[in-house]
Each structure stands twice: as structure tokens, then as C-alpha cells.
Amino acid sequence: MGCAAYRLSHSQGCGFHWGESSVSVVRLRQAAKESVSGLPREFWWLWTSTLVNRLGGFVATFLAMYLTVDRGYSAMFAGLVGALHGLGGAVAAVVAGVLTDRLGRRPTLLVSQLSTAVTVAMLGFVQNPVAIAVVACLVGMTSNASRPAVQAMIADIVAPRDRVRAFALNYWAINLGFAVSAAAAGLIARHGYLTLFLADAGMTLLCAVIVFGKVPESRPEREPAAEGAAVESEPEVGLGAVLRDRRFMAVVALSFLVATLIQQAFVALPVAMGADGLSSTDFGVAIAMNGVLIVAVQIPVTRFLEHREPAPLLMVSALLTGAGFGLTAFAGSVGMYALAVMVWTIGEIINSPTQMGLVARLSPTHGRGRYQGMYTLSWSLASLIAPLAGGAVMDSFGADALWAASAVVGLVAAGGYVALGRALRSRPAAGEVGGGVGAGVGAASGPTSGSGSTSGSGSGSTSTSGSGSGSTSGSGSTSGSVAASPAVGAGSS
Prior knowledge:
Distance between the termini: 56 Å
Structural class: mainly alpha
CATH architecture: Up-down Bundle
Oligomer: single chain
Number of helices: 17
Number of strands: 0
């Protein structure tokens, strides 16, 4: 009867052995355990609240299709509304970054989540096109205000060596929710788009409740340079200092290029699919491949990414992102659109945790909010410019011209990351020589933002429940201040 597939032996005549299969399963379980172990309990509140938030993230995904298909507006108007949404996000990125450092992570999160719930619900009721544009701008402002706070919290509570993994897990939660919400929203939209707006508002409100009940403040407290001294251990980091950080601003600029491509998935892609006669359900299926693929491979891929130099990885991610959107020019069916989505999604999988880890590596401890705000600004500006550019190109030259231009932008970004890699190798990050920069990809932290043996504000003196993890993980010093008391939050990404 051929090979005895059910034997537990390892005989040479059998092509499949349960013993070998058991070993593989054990290895997979061990890999999964290693991927989620070692992170503070508070981080998992972040994961949970982020997941809840994204399970209801219907509006941003389907706004362009709602305006063009359900309301009958042009692609240009949909692009304008998307641009105003991005404008609100751009304003919020800078303001919220400052508030995150000055007022704290928790207050910024609560205000952002509560106001997002209100404005998203309003967007479902307004009818006048001017009112739609104004409320969309408010939604962009309120929803993006949470991002600097969330990202700063992760840097606060997670040890430097684990930050890339933590950012990847949080991003994984976002996309797990996105995969479910994108597929569900296409079906829900059949019964009216208002249901989508109200469901989004309700889930955002639930996220705010989680933040209110479970999230303490995590902002590091300043310590004097010496006992009784009036001078603080780290000077105030203003926006001017952020803008003068050339390497960081290069990261922001390159992030903007990649984000401009990815934003087309939520503006130009649904419009192009609608023009091909495909429905909102078809778009939901295609774009859900983004979330499904990230959920499937983000965690194992992160194990490969977390201890490697960031620049080569980011270069590859830019090439894949450009290639994926370029491939969209050849799509005419749901299957081909889904294939194109999967190609640029691989680039996104590489880019997101790697780039966020690099931003944390370059950010001084007491400037994390401002640095994260400026990084968020790159995505917000992309949300502002990408819809206008995408809508204008599609109306004037057609969708194929837009996808060809996207491939070119991917090539330009890849070249920029190559140059960035040279700059990063020429001199260490500020925190690696004492400036307090947390580690990102393959680099440890400096003395003020890394893990250390001193007590965090409000936390114990060890790292068992706080955010420190030991005194030897910094590369610039063997000690440092712990990143304050544990806390998490959730943003409406």
C-alpha cells in the first residue's frame, strides 16, 4: 500500500514521518512563543486596544468609494476630501507630538479617541459637500493625534532590544483588525454606508474606554544632572532641533515617498476598481489581502528583520512597494488586483517595523513625542498630497499613468535609502554616543532612553513590571534611566 504515512518511524522509504512533523510543530510553537515573550504586560493592553480600534476601522478604507459610488462625486472631489483628511492629520502630527511630550501620552490619547468617535459619526450624517470636506478634515486631525502618543509609549515601556518586535506586533494587530474590517465592511456597505460610520465611531469609543481604564501615564520624568542641581540631565528638545537632525529628516522624507504610494491603495485603487466595473465587495476582498498577508507573515518575518541593518531592508521595501503598484496597471480582475496588493504588502511588511524602530533609535528620550510627531507628519502629508496627485493624474492621464509613476517613485525612494545607509554608517546615532536614542534595528540604545537599572516614574526599581530590562543593553553606557512607569495606548491608525 505504499508508504505507511501513519507510522511514527523514520524509515528511509517513507516520504512523510509524524516524528519529523512533530518536530516541525514544536519548532513553530517555540518560534511563536519567542515572538511574543519578554514584552511587558502593559504592552499587551496596547495590542488589545489597537486591535479593537482597527476592527472598526471602516471609514478611512471606504471613504473614496463612498463618495464616488454611493454619493456620485468625481474622483477629483474624492481626492480633495482625502487631501483635507490628510491636512488635518498633518496639523495633528506636529501639535500632538508637542502635547505628547508636554502634557503626557495618556491625555493626548484620550482626547484623540473621544473626539475621533464624535467626528466619524458626524461624517456619516452630513450631506452638504462643503460639510463633508470640513468634517473629513476634522476626522483626519482627531484620528492622527493619537499616533505620536502611541509610538512614544511603545518606546517608553519596551526595552530597546525588543522595540522592533513590539512595533511589528502592534502593526500586526492593526492589520489583523484591518483584514477583518475590510472584508466585513464591503458586506455591511450593502445595507448602507451610515452603518459603517456608526460602527467605526462605536469601536473608537470602546478603545477610549480601554485607554481610560487600563492605561497609566508613561512619559519619562526628568532627573537632575546631580543631586540638588537645577540643570536637567537632558535638555529640552524643540521642533527646531528635530528639523536640524539631517539623518532623521532624511528618514521622514523617504517615509513620505513610500507613504505616498501606499495611500493610493485607499484613494486611487478603489476608484480604479470601480471604473473597471468592480464592486465595493470586490475592493474589500482585494484590499483584505493586505491585512491577511501581514497577519500571516509579519511575525516570522520580524524575527529575520530585528537584528539587521535598517537601510538595506528599507531599500528592498521601497522597490517592492513601487513594483506592486506598478503591477496594478496590468490588473483587470479581482485576482490580479489582489496579486498586486500582495506584492506591495510585502514591501510594507518590511518597511513598517524597520522604519519605526529606526525612528525610535534616532529619538532622544524627552523628545520622543516630537520625533514621532514629525515621523507621523510624513504619513499625514502623504495623505494630503497623494489623493490630490492621484485624482488629478487619473482624471487627466488615466490610471495606468499613475501606476507607472508609482513604480518610478519606488525606485527613487530605494536610492534614497541606499544614501541613508551610508550616512548611518558614517557616524553612530546620537543615543549611541550619549544622546539618549533608543535602539531600533540591530542597534542598542544610548544611556538615557535605553533600559537601565534605575527606577522609572511610578514603577518599581527593577524591570519586572516596569519598562527597563537590565543595565547592559545600552551601547553608549551601561546604565540609564528606565523609561518611566508602564503604560500603553491605542491609536486610530
